[in-house]
Amino acid sequence: MLSVSRSIVLPDSELVVRFLRADGPGGQHVNRTESAVELRFDVLHSPSLPDDVRARLLARSDRRLTDEGVLVIQARRFRDQGRNREDARERLLEILRAALVVPKKRVATKPTRASQKRRLEGKQQRGKLKQARSRSWSHE
Known about the structure:
alpha+beta, Double Stranded RNA Binding Domain, hydrolase, single chain, peptidyl-tRNA hydrolase activity
């Protein structure tokens, strides 16, 4: 059971945990033990997530999110399988809690007259520089 917030609780049945061999330090022992953890959570088909949270999660441009809407987290920071499992669950919680926050709506504002003037002056200066460049360079 993974408690995301007061209203959202993910049952363990929605989390798929797989163990794999980790790379990195550990000597000969690392070749025989599966201490790395891959945690999969199906965001698209999860009945525990509210629709707005699901939409925000799926809208993220996150490389850990597959085309099928499955969030894949790999934890191999530690040499201990139990610690890696906890690390993966914590990282999933961070992602889910970040999706709970409703982003503020952007309020459209007009550019100030001074900023418009600065922009146009900058464009004119750049144009003059390019114009001067083309006059000094000749075809031979």
